[in-house]
Amino acid sequence: MGIAVRLKCSRLRLGPSNPVEIYGQKMSAPRDSSPVGPVEPASFASASQYSFGVFSIDLRSRKLTKGSTPVPIPARAFDTLAYLIASRGQVVDKNDIIAAAWRDVAVTDNSLTHAISVLRHALGDDPDNPTFIETIPRVGYRFVGEVNTEGPATVAVVETNERLTASAHGSSWSPIAAGLLVLAIVATSWWIAGAVNKSRPVEARDTGGVIRLEQPAPPGTTILSGGIVSPSGNDLAFVARDDVTGRTALWVRPLRSPRPEKLAWTDGATKPFWSPDGRFIAFFANGRLSAVARSGDTARTIATTGSTPVGGSWGRDNLILFADWTSGLNAVSAAGGPVRPITRVDHAVLDFAHAWPRFLPDGHHFLYQVVSLDPSRSGVYAGSIDSPGRVRVLDVISPAVYAPPGVLLYVRHDMLMAEGFDASRLALDGRPVVIARGVGVSSWQDADVVSSSQDVLAFREGDSGQRLHIVDRAGMEKDSIDLASALTNLRLAPDQQRLVATSAPTEAGALWMIDLESRQHTRFASNAIGPVWAPDSDRVAFTANGGFDLYVARRGAASSGPIITDGFVKVLNDWSPDGRAIVYSQLDPATKLDLWEVPAVGGPRRALLKTRFNESQGRVSPDGRWIAYLSDESGEPEVYVRRYPEMTQPTRVSVGGGAQAQWRHDQSELFYLSADNTLMAVPVHASADISFGPPRRLFRTSVGFSPSDIRDSYVVMADGESFLLQAPPDVSRPPRINVVMNWMARLSLGTSRVAAAP
User: What pLDDT is recorded for position 230?
Assistant: First the structure.
């Protein structure tokens, strides 16, 4: 079977009196009072030439000129400019621009960001003081220049409603079918007219047999997962965190009811999955795999797990597969009993995680994700509980979800894809279809972005952009920085002038430099991750080639070559205050993560701490005499401090879990993130020796990762009174789960073109 989808239009007409706005495959509520949405084609009906400032644009000849001098720009950038001019004075959603300028292909927001950058360069436009193109953070753009029209129009950048309606009357594409298909593949957030009370579920709406609804967070909570659809499609399970206690729990919403209910006995729950009959929900909490009845009866423990479980699946033969990222996939009876290994992570070939198993219909084969530093090995694989062989199915970094009777769902960039899949042959049909745009990007840490039964599809919206928040010690915002793409592992230069950070894996890994005064961000290095600053604020160390090579480069200058290149994966932790050494974690198959250091100018390296436990996230104190680091020797990630570089006198600092330790610049405090992502402050008393006061809670953060999984989710500013936080892109719109019922009712397999933009 297949899904026939046309992605060319920004508007479709369902019928004589039922128009449906399609915002580049994303229907969203207006986020401010400015008009947002597609511009009527009539905007281009009166002229083919426009002038603005010293520039002119001719739609007929597709030329941009400055005075009489041609200004060459790429075709997509030209269409983007033309669309913005047609919409002059209005805020235009970025998805509308993409739908107009990339009518024949599906692309990510990065293509639009690049086109805007090209236009600003061609027009000499300053993004901080725009003459022509204004950025509307997290929404889109607005053309603010004065525009004059010249001459009659013969070319339109966007297709008219009449042309779209006419094309819909073709022999195989009726207006009703077209409208229903677009509704069935509607993207991330549903536009409910009027004000929406975010503490109440949005009522379902039935449009031509396709019912759609949103599940916002229950009052007083924040949703932390996607919606997990029961096999019958009757219920939706999800994880939400209490905004007061910080504890997570399972919630279930019967889709015939407007309100979810919290399940007892699920304190600390994460990564839930259903039993095949829908009577139980399994979940991970406190180092155990447990199951709770759908009715909310007492939960029972099934097995003990590692500290980093990454998903599970319940098969029809009452067998459960679950993943631990440090070892691989394991199997256990749902009734409990011995745990047996099914797959093992092969560190020798650069794999470092097996995650998110999903049983296929026969109950013996399953899908799972392999995360590897070798791109040729990463992807979604099919395996069997009866044999060790495996087949690579997809090359995406996103896990995959099987939807009966034969579709794989996965996320590529921010696009939700569907592709026909023969579960008996473990083969895709090679014709992927874009179901939605703006979907949260799955990862090996967080895969429940998408879930489906045969009739119900649930997915969580996302954003390729990001907002960095500067807050005080109470968590109150003082300032913010908007970024066009998501960045991780933030590091602030010692002179407090610049940030350096790593782009998301979906953008192939690159380092970006952000000037905190001008707010400009520029690419610093490609194929690079995990940067740390030198004490002089002029040099940056980073790793490349999947973490095997360690480089040092000055700002504005190319690196002269790696100072280390070997067969071990390295994660940079810190640069010692005296400039002498770079501290890093090294992954060894025998001893897991260990702390090492190497002279900053190159030379022999030495192990600082190498045990049978994981040691990482080393941060050297400002006086250079102590090092804070993360270890799981207690069974959970905790923050410890030792004398540096002797590595004697270990002292545990955190209580009840902790990670990402950072020193205050005057060394009077040590900060860390607790297990519930609360920022903690620990008084430090250091002279000949060192001692610590009890940890104090400052505020709970909204960082989207487990604090032990990411190296840097926050930055301590120089005064120790303010912090820069990595946070979701739009905190004014809390995470919601989008649900489409009867999503495959009218779909039949076809093809859709998905291409990379130039």
Answer: 95
Q: What is the per-residue DSSP string for 320-361?
A: EEEEETTTEEEEEETT----EES----GGGTEEEEEEEEE-T
Do 528 and 487 form a contact (C-beta atoms < 8 A)? no
Give the neighbor-by-neighbor strand order of the sheet with 280-285. 270-274, 280-285, 288-293, 300-304
Strongest mean pLDDT among 8-22, 306-320, 405-419: 306-320
pLDDT of residue 717: 94
Q: Is 155 helix (H, G, I), strand (E, B) or coil?
A: coil
Residue 342: CB atoms within 10 A of its CB come to 22
Contact between 438 and 26 under an 8 Å Cβ cutoff? The reply is: yes
Report the Cα–Cα distance between both ends of the chain, in Å, rounded.
Answer: 32
Taking residue 588's Cβ as centre, other Cβ atoms within 10 Å add up to: 15
Q: What is the pLDDT of residue 327?
A: 83
- Condensed to tens digits (0 to 9), the pLDDT of residues 58-98 reads 888 889 999 989 998 888 889 899 999 988 888 888 888 88
* Backbone φ, ψ for residue 83 (5° rounding): -65, -40
Contacts 24+ apart (CB under 8 A), 328-335: 328/354, 329/354, 329/357, 329/368, 329/383, 330/303, 331/385, 332/289, 332/302, 332/303, 334/275, 334/280, 334/282, 334/291, 334/302, 335/302
Q: Pick from 351, 357, 346, 404: which is nearest to 382 by CA? A: 357
Q: Right CATH number for 39-157 from 3.40.190.10, 1.10.1660.10, 2.60.120.10, 1.10.10.10? A: 1.10.10.10
Name which residue leads in pLDDT, 302 or 545. Answer: 302
Tell me the two tokens of residue 670.
């040590």
- 92-93 vs 133-136, strand pairing mode: unpaired
pLDDT digits (tens, 9 = 90+) for 467-497: 788 999 999 888 888 776 678 888 999 999 9
Q: How far apart are CA 673 and CA 714, in angstroms?
A: 9
Domains 39-157 and 540-727 share a fold: no
Q: Which pLDDT band, with edges at 50, 70 and 90, does 233 fall under?
A: very high
**pTM of the predicted model as reported, rounded to 2 decimal places:** 0.60
Q: How far apart are CA 504 and CA 437, in angstroms?
A: 17
pLDDT of 479 reads 87
Residue with tokens 């360690």: 550
Distances (CA, A) of 160 to 41, 60, 164, 532, 746: 6, 17, 6, 52, 26
CA distance 640 to 650: 6
Q: Sign of torsion, CA 585 323 289 335?
A: negative
Domain range annotation of the chain? 39-157, 217-304, 540-727
At residue 105 the predicted structure's pLDDT band, cuts being 50, 70 and 90, is low
Residue with tokens 């045969």: 454
Q: How high is the pLDDT of residue 507?
A: 45
Q: Are strands 696-700 and 714-716 parallel, antiparallel or unpaired?
A: unpaired
Averaged pLDDT of the chain: 78
* SS3 per-residue string spanning 260-303: CEECCCCCCCEEEEECCCCCEEEEEECCEEEEEECCCCCCEEEE
d(CA 361, CA 453): 12
Domain range 540-727, CATH architecture = 6 Propeller (2.120)
CA distance 294 to 297: 8
- Residue 112, number of CB atoms within 10 A of its CB: 25
State the average pLDDT over residues 442-452: 65
Q: Is there a contact between 570 and 584 (Cβ–Cβ < 8 Å)? A: yes
What residues contact 589, with CB distance under 8 A and at least 6 apart?
Answer: 347, 348
CA distance 390 to 406: 20
**CA–CA distance, 639 with 670 (Å, rounded to integer):** 10
**What pLDDT score was predicted for residue 540?**
95
